Amino acid sequence: MPSFSHFFQTFISSKGLFLDATLLTLKLTIVSILIGIIFGLFFALLKISRIKILEYISNAYVFLVRGTPLIVQIFILYFGFSGIFLIPDFWAAALALAFHNGAYIAEIFRGTIQSVDKGQMEAGRSLGMTRGTAMRRIILPQAFRRALPPLGNQFIIGLKDSSLAAFISMNELFNVATTLGSNHFDEMTYLLIVAIYYLVLVALLTMIVSMLEKKLAISDR
Amino acid sequence: MPSFSHFFQTFISSKGLFLDATLLTLKLTIVSILIGIIFGLFFALLKISRIKILEYISNAYVFLVRGTPLIVQIFILYFGFSGIFLIPDFWAAALALAFHNGAYIAEIFRGTIQSVDKGQMEAGRSLGMTRGTAMRRIILPQAFRRALPPLGNQFIIGLKDSSLAAFISMNELFNVATTLGSNHFDEMTYLLIVAIYYLVLVALLTMIVSMLEKKLAISDR
Amino acid sequence: MNSREMIKIENLNKSFGSLHVLKDIDLSVYESEVVCLVGSSGSGKSTLLRCLNFLEKKDGGSIFIRGEEISPDTHNINDVRQTVGMVFQHFNLFPHKTVLENIIEAPIIVKKIPKSEAVDEARELLQKVGLEDKADVYPSKLSGGQKQRVAIARSLAMKPDIMLFDEPTSALDPELVGEVLTTMKELADEGMTMVVVTHEMGFAREVADSIVFMNDGKILEKNCPEEFFDNPKEERTKEFLKTTALK
Amino acid sequence: MNSREMIKIENLNKSFGSLHVLKDIDLSVYESEVVCLVGSSGSGKSTLLRCLNFLEKKDGGSIFIRGEEISPDTHNINDVRQTVGMVFQHFNLFPHKTVLENIIEAPIIVKKIPKSEAVDEARELLQKVGLEDKADVYPSKLSGGQKQRVAIARSLAMKPDIMLFDEPTSALDPELVGEVLTTMKELADEGMTMVVVTHEMGFAREVADSIVFMNDGKILEKNCPEEFFDNPKEERTKEFLKTTALK
Amino acid sequence: AQKDELSDGTKLIDKEEFIFAASGEFKPFSYLKDDLSMTGFDIEVGNAVGKELGLKPVQKRMKFKGLIEGIKTGRADAAVASHTINPDRAKHVAFSTPYYYSGPQIFTRPDSDIKTVDDLKGKEVAVAKGSTYADVAGKYTSNLKMYDSDITALKALSIGRHDAVITDFVTGKSSQQEGFKIKGQQLIERSEQAIVVPKDNPELLKRINMALQKLRDDGTLARISQKYFGQDITKKPE
Ligand SMILES: Nc1ncnc2c1ncn2[C@@H]1O[C@H](COP(=O)(O)OP(=O)(O)OP(=O)(O)O)[C@@H](O)[C@H]1O
Ligand SMILES: Nc1ncnc2c1ncn2[C@@H]1O[C@H](COP(=O)(O)OP(=O)(O)OP(=O)(O)O)[C@@H](O)[C@H]1O
Ligand SMILES: [Mg+2]
Ligand SMILES: [Mg+2]
């Protein structure tokens, strides 16, 4: 275990690099969650489309993502995508993470869409709206709102998962930590430092999510 | 993308290695979940002990594990443990995973213990049992039973997470896949093969868990 | 009573799986007629109403709206629904929209009416149901009775020719039932054609032009209120009236 | 009535936060006496019973069991509880154990009685409550009335000197109340000292030696059943009896 | 970490064994056979050294970048893993005498304009984490991408990612033979590769150096080199 003063000095001196890496980690997480929301919404709608084949496609996607480790998905998508068309590293990593997050977000949306009272759809339709219009104007806005807290949690999970992008050469927090660690032959200190960065980020996000939850609970119904 | 016949041939020829790796993956997962159950039970009991300091310790544990990526935990524990005393690699990996699983299992147990009707404790105490006896004989058996399905899910998560033990040189599924991939200069084929192994394992386990859930639901109350 | 036939149902049948819920229903509703549908729980009243609004698909038989036979194959059901308004037991207001937005939503989105026009009409309707001061409030802030009056206004905003009510007061606290029934009575007095499923026998007796008694998926009796309450023809009707009198 | 004092409560007080739930309670229960505690909801009946069994900690006053003052500081409360059995409204049977296991659990674990002996006694108790054929069944398979009789047997297995009942029949379907009351009556006839919180006025009148009426945390009246029902002293008691008669 | 100590002060994890580590991801220096045991140039050298020490050679696989940490923390007795001698590493671990001589080379895709180190300025260069090539590359560009193994970096290069990879010329050449679409460019510098031993174990270092000398003298090293490379890379070049 490193001594406290050594740890503290290293913490200070590595601040610049880690803050850059924090930004990259956040960028990667935000982008992958945003794209994941699009994937998620798309597959959630397939799932509730009542068209068997679309349902199967959606189920298969969720099954594939839930059935394999994220690191396997990242490697396959990173090297696999490239065989077809080449996108910049950042986007390759973001897409791989988004593909993963998307399945979990699809399940979140499916849940919140189905949690909206069936009477809402009937009311919309009884006013002459088509299924699609009622979904878009009535159901989805309510489902989105309810999805905010679980999406916040998925964001926190996604933040931690983004550490695996280190293995496809993203210079995010974990990669910076292990690279510095192996350069300075001092893995432990840098690992402990990066743990602190993650803890602070997760703690902040957790606070935000629980504030969000409270706010929604108050204004609900 | 590899051609199908190449993929199929590789699948067959690598079967032995992957089956060994599957065994190691399962061993690692089972051991880490079993130790995790011990950790989890211990910290869940701390949490509900009504002794503030023990509660804090339990909260801190859960916070540390939930607040940092698993890969960071694995690296810290693997190298950190080694600085103190040397345990075999398998046990270092298993302990690191158990430490991680333990926090999630602690939350599972806390939940199921608290879900047991308060009247059960009162009935036990009214019969002259001490808090401890009532906890051990009345509450915990019921809490355990309810914990089985979520523990099953944690097992599935743990199985996938064990892929990260590849980075501390366990020859589990993912490590075998990347190593063979890099030896044969053919990462993609082996990644796709290992994905299939994971999918089959997860699908089997999911079936078992949902059978378990049904069985418990039937015999419940 | 005007003699123009607004709704005509012929030989309507509907099953859920093996459960035969509507059995050979024949019923006509004339312009400005107020029909109250009564009957014990599970007798098929809601299902009949929902078939009229095409929220359920009928299995057999015909439904004519203003003389024209309607079928999902030949008609755009969404257009038909615009002429048939529906009010639900649980209001089903849109919780993410204010009262005013609830009312203007369908006219703007479905009928493509300009927003300013829709707002003006909505305010008139709110005045009519006595809630002009609640326009910018969210439904969660309303009492049950107020919610139901907003739901009625929302339905009326589509200018339907026929209004269907499915137990519009049975989710309300007793002291709030009156305000909703008053609104419905005013609507009836203005000549709206209405089909009302209700357990409020007082309302039925006072407002209905005819009462339809359903039992086990069949229409057992249709009569004017005086005859129905004071001189029921069927044995089942008598029993039913006895149980409702007890409540 | 035997004159030996089994329970003596002096000046008992109990608050939950700022809510003063028991106010200066004085009460004695003699050997073989059956005391029924009645009073409206929230008057503190359950709390009083729970204080007697030390499931709640009293704030002030004294509780004597068989002449000895009991306090958590000087006594092992777990030992005291063995002499005071308790039956709960919701039975609180252990769902993961069979009926027999429910009954033998405490004698074996707490009293360290040999298993074979505990089983013999349990079978006798089951016979007594008329459930000898249910020994190996899980509680989930029993009706509410059967559950409560098992709960009584489970309590009796610890050979308590006093039995406390907290609304033992109010979670039961009406047709199942009788079997539990019968069991309790038999217990009373055998000379068990009992304190029963109940809304079953018929039972109270027939079985109780005295009735205690609680109101707002105080004991307003203690009397024999005849006097209590036919000639209540307090105005509040009369009101209370009026509302229960309505039910 | 507690180790067994021999009479001459040599510390070993197990007094019967020589446990040496390599990555297994650095073909042809170390890679896996189909039974998952490692083979390759490094491994054969490690085996030969172990036998020469009179111990049972036991191989152990670790990610390359964890090797130095692993030796420091006692997860293996030594690393025979193509570690290039450099002063930074020498602060943390001890090096044996070199057992082969090599050098980093620039690899690019065949159609690349990059030929020499001067062309690397501002270009994206991928290297293996913890390798000395990261330092080498850092001299010419600041745009570095880190991978866990050289082969993964070369694979990424071959499918179109990054501008160049700097790695050992032998590794690059064999990847080329395996069909990676890459091309070797300038050989940057010469380097000496040696066995890594913990600093607190001078007796072991001494014995390893003696063993290596013996293997050099009796031609064993040269023979292993010929087997893998068709040339002798174990002699110091002129
Ligand atoms: N979507 C459905 N699927 C299956 N069965 C249904 C469905 N909707 C209604 N039913 C069944 O059809 C029968 C008639 O139901 P309906 O709701 O029309 O009765 P109702 O007369 O409105 O009763 P209530 O007064 O309780 O509202 C009932 O047995 C009901 O359980
Ligand atoms: N654990 C507790 N914490 C806070 N308040 C409590 C607690 N238990 C009971 N109370 C309050 O104490 C008061 C008396 O409760 P108690 O359960 O003794 O009444 P009761 O006479 O048994 O009523 P009921 O007939 O409804 O069972 C009530 O106002 C109740 O809300
Ligand atoms: Mg209905
Ligand atoms: Mg009570």
Q: Layout of SSEs?
A:
The complex is a heteropentamer, with two copies of chain A (221 residues), two copies of chain C (247 residues) and one copy of chain E (238 residues).
Chain A: H1 4-13, H2 15-47, H3 52-67, H4 70-84, H5 89-115, H6 118-126, H7 131-161, H8 173-183, H9 187-219
Helix pairs in contact in A: 2-3, 2-5, 2-7, 2-8, 3-5, 4-5, 5-7, 6-7, 7-9, 8-9
Chain C: E1 5-16, E2 19-30, E3 34-39, H1 45-52, E4 60-65, E5 68-69, H2 77-83, E6 84-87, H3 99-109, H4 115-128, H5 144-156, E7 162-166, H6 174-189, E8 193-197, H7 201-207, E9 210-215, E10 218-223, H8 225-230, H9 235-246
Parallel strand pairs in C: 3-8, 3-9, 6-7, 7-8
Antiparallel strand pairs in C: 1-2, 1-4, 4-5, 9-10
Helix pairs in contact in C: 3-4, 3-5, 4-5, 5-6
Chain E: E1 4-5, E2 11-12, E3 17-22, E4 25-26, E5 30-32, E6 38-39, H1 41-52, E7 56-61, H2 67-72, E8 78-84, H3 87-90, E9 93-102, E10 104-108, E11 125-128, H4 132-138, E12 144-147, H5 150-158, E13 164-168, H6 169-177, E14 183-187, E15 191-198, H7 202-217, H8 220-229
Parallel strand pairs in E: 3-7, 3-8, 11-12, 11-13
Antiparallel strand pairs in E: 1-2, 4-5, 5-6, 8-15, 9-15, 10-13, 10-14
The complex binds adenosine-5'-triphosphate (ATP) (2 copies) and magnesium ion (2 copies).
Domain ABC transmembrane type-1 (chains A, B): 22-209
Family (chains A, B): Belongs to the binding-protein-dependent transport system permease family.
Transmembrane segments (chains A, B): 28-48, 60-81, 190-212
Structure commentary:
The complex is a heteropentamer, with 2 copies of chain A (221 residues), 2 copies of chain C (247 residues) and 1 copy of chain E (238 residues). Chain A is mostly helical. Chain A contains 9 helices and no strands. Chain C is 38% helix and 26% strand. In chain C, helix 3 (99-109) packs across helix 4. Chain C has helices at 45-52, 77-83, 99-109, 115-128, 144-156, 174-189, 201-207, 225-230, 235-246; strands at 5-16, 19-30, 34-39, 60-65, 68-69, 84-87, 162-166, 193-197, 210-215, 218-223. Chain C has a 6-stranded mixed beta sheet, sandwiched between helices. A 4-stranded antiparallel beta sheet of chain C has the order 2-1-4-5, with helices on one face. Chain C is globular. Chain C is built from 9 helices and 10 strands. Chain E is built from 8 helices and 15 strands. In chain E, the strands form 4 sheets. A 5-stranded mixed beta sheet of chain E has the order 7-3-8-15-9. In chain E, helix 1 (41-52) packs antiparallel against helix 8 (220-229). Chain E starts with a strand and ends in a 9-residue tail after the last helix. Residues 16, 19, 21, 39, 41-47 of chain D line the site of one adenosine-5'-triphosphate. Chains A, B: Its main location: membrane. Chains A, B: Belongs to the binding-protein-dependent transport system permease family. Chains A, B: It comes from Neobacillus kokaensis. Chains A, B: It is a multi-pass membrane protein. Chains A, B: The chain crosses the membrane at residues 28-48, 60-81, 190-212.
